[in-house]
Amino acid sequence: MSEHVRPTQAKLAEPLGEDEIHVWSCAYRPAVGRGPLRRLLARYLGCDADTLRLREEEHGRPMLPVGRHGALRFNWSHSGERALVAVARSVQPGIDLEHRARRTRDVQALARRFFAEAEATALARCDDAGRPLHFLRLWTAKEALLKAQGRGLAFGMDRVAVSVGPGAPELLAFEGEALEDWHLKELICDEAWVAALAWRGQPMEVRWRGDFE
After folding, report:
1. Confidence check: pLDDT of 119 > 60
2. Which helix (H) or strand (E) holds 87?
3. What is the model's pLDDT at position 190?
4. Quick one: pLDDT at residue 139?
5. What is the DSSP letter of 64?
6. Separation CA 191–CA 40 (nearest Å)
7. What confidence tier does 5 reach under pLDDT thresholds 50, 70, 90?
8. CB–CB of 187/24 below 8 Å?
9. 199 within 8 A of 74, measured Cβ to Cβ
10. Cα gap 19→17, rounded to integer Å
11. What is the pLDDT of residue 33?
12. Which end of the chain is less packed: N or C, by CB atoms within 10 Å?
């Protein structure tokens, strides 16, 4: 399943359902690191953010310690001065965010090196003006999928392939995975940002919750 998701405002106090993924935006500064992320998770968990400790899985994905917090799953991504956080209970989300101004290198060379052949070919067919955005749509979709899987970029971006045309992104291949198990959505932020959300499992309602301070 692939589609676009547009922002709608909601309140933090509203509960997180088993069939929902909440997506939040917040400011990001390297000096504070995961502070905003811990504060957001603490609100869901009803605990003090200062007592909340995160662990990292083998491939670097941050997780809550096993125990009473284990039912809450999340993922986050930051680019420049902005971060997105996806929170769920029954599935493991993967989210990726990229600022359009940050990708200034030769995107075609990057695609030939890291992407699947079909993706690099599709990118080469784009006009010069549209190629950087097409590249970022591919990148965010692929990285969201890899983060949800848990292996991240270490798995190899060429082992997952997506198509991003005028409509929503489509998952074409994912080595070792059943494609029908996966859901991929492109998040509509604003003209400066490109973002995607992915997960494996049951269909979920994605609710964009707005800005979190």
Report:
1. yes
2. strand 82-88
3. 78
4. 95
5. P
6. 26
7. low
8. no
9. no
10. 5
11. 87
12. C
The upper half-sphere exposure of residue 8, i.e. CA atoms within 13 Å in the direction of its Cβ, equals 7
pLDDT digits (tens, 9 = 90+) for 163-173: 998 878 999 99
Burial 90-119 (b: 16+ CB within 10 A, else e): bbbbbbbbbbeeebeeebbebbeeebbeeb
CB 141 within 8 A of CB 157: no
Whole-model pTM: value is 0.90
pLDDT in tens, 148-165: 999 888 899 999 999 998
Cα(92)–Cα(150) distance, rounded to whole angstroms? 9
Count of H helices and E strands in the chain?
A: 4, 12
Structure tokens of 86? 């996806």
Rounded CA-CA distance 109/103 in Å is 12
Which tokens is 17 given?
Answer: 């359902």
d(CA 135, CA 173): 17
Cα–Cα distance between 101 and 49 in angstroms, integer? 33
Q: 109 by DSSP, 3-state: which?
A: helix
Q: Which residue has the higher pLDDT, 131 or 2?
A: 131
Distance separating alpha carbons of residues 34 and 50, to the nearest angstrom: 11
Could you tell me whether strands 94-99 and 193-200 are parallel, antiparallel, or unpaired per DSSP bridges?
Answer: antiparallel
